[in-house]
Amino acid sequence: xxxxxxxxxxxxxxxxxxxxxxxxxxxxxxxxxxxxxxxxxxxxxxxxxxxxxxxxxxxxxxxxxxxxxxxxxxxxxxxxxxxxx
Length: 85
What we know:
Structural class: mainly alpha
Number of domains: 1
Order of helices and strands: HHHHH
Helix content: 55-70%
Distance between the termini: 33 Å
Shape: globular
Number of helices: 5
């Protein structure tokens, strides 16, 4: 996961909203507040599992940022689907 922390700007991210704004992802503020911890936990797990995928993308410009963005979006969608009534 060290690759993620090397992305410029990630050291200042403190809240789930900060992550979504940094990665320019749409979200529903009220819904995100109720599942923020779960989404960030899922995102962390996705980051840890993404090492092989990341290694295959190293030739693409900004690949780390785009990979992290995709993983955050997927984490949010998974949590939303699980918590939907």
